[in-house]
Amino acid sequence: MSSLSLAVSVWDAINGGGGKPRLKAAKGYFHDIKQEDLPLLCEAYQVWMTFDEYVVIKGVNKKGEKLMVAIKASKRGNDRYRQITRERFSAFDDIPYKRLFEDADIEKGLARTQALFVTLTWPTKFSSIEAAWLTVGQYLNRWRSRLEQKYGRISVARVWQTFANGYPHVHGVLLFRDSSFQVAFKQEETVLHGETKTVYRIAEKEEFEQSWPGFVDVAAVTSTRGALRYCRRYMTRDVTRGESFTAPMYQGGSIQAQDLALQWLYRKRSFGVSGDFREALHDLIEAKRNSKGGQGTLDGDILPDWTWELIGVYSWAQLRAAKEDLDPGGGRPWVVSLSVDDLERLLHHGA
């Protein structure tokens, strides 16, 4: 396929009308996706992600002061999304190190842990790629509910990822608030690129294999640092590098391209963290949790006392045409202040 025909195909896949790429169009185009469709999907995602758009809002506070701003939209994988992700995980920076068990206690049967690494693999013979992505969340909730019925409260940090064939799998850290597990043995296992690592296995693994249709891998977390390293490795891998995503895994493309493209197509949050996950980590090291009150934004800031009205969503080209003093060569700022005249021109150009 020529580059021109590929470009036309990509636009056909995501054209939502008005010259803007839209997920709704992609969902219709990639219905019941197959592995051979992944190259075009990755291209379509790239076009959508790099198409900068701005959310325009108008606000007023109790003093009657008015403000009109255009805020760069956070799109899965773009610079704003990556910054928000980094800031969200900075909340874990103050978690101190603590070893959760000692190797010497394993042979004595005394080594126990309340923290586990898990990987849940989806079996390819169980369903199509699309059915897997549409139902994996339901199966994960059912799997977790069964564990909670047996072991009590669980705080979870999890991420959706994909294999080269397009099927999803789940990585996660489970913190059990009311139960602990026996660390039965340790062994050296081969990981990526032929490297080896020490993995600690628990005696109760069979309990974790119930109610999940595919393979389940379970390992003991040895320290709070290990849990945080695992979280950062998997949960920020797809959003902090700022790479160009142009090919799926089975064609030699990056893991990030296919992960983000499929998460986008099926509206999956790249990662999820229980609200009490940080508190549970603190409990493991018997530290007091510090918190601050107030209503917060996604960026972690305290919201000012303003009432906001949504005006609309506009492309960078529309914003640049409306705001005459916006430097077209000065980069694309995250926040742009608008005057009354700017807003009138924007509404005109965006009509």
Explain the layout of strands and helices:
Blueprint: H1 3-14, H2 23-29, H3 38-50, E1 53-61, E2 66-72, H4 79-89, E3 112-113, E4 115-121, H5 129-151, E5 154-162, E6 168-176, E7 181-190, E8 196-202, H6 205-208, E9 216-220, H7 224-235, H8 255-265, E10 271-273, H9 277-284, E11 306-315, H10 316-322, E12 335-337, H11 340-350
Helix pairs in contact: 1-3, 3-8, 10-11
Short synopsis of the structure:
With 351 residues, this protein is an alpha+beta fold. Helices cover 34% and strands 23% of the residues. The strands form 3 sheets. Strands 9-4-6-5-10 form a 5-stranded antiparallel sheet, sandwiched between helices.
CATH class of the largest domain: Alpha Beta
Outline, from the CA principal axes? Answer: globular
Number of helices: 11
- What is the alpha-carbon Rg in Å? 24 Å
The structural domain count equals 2
Structural class: alpha+beta
Tell how many strands the DSSP assignment holds: 12
Low-confidence segments, ≥5 residues, pLDDT <50? 1-5, 240-250, 287-303
Query: What CATH architecture label of the largest domain applies?
Result: 2-Layer Sandwich
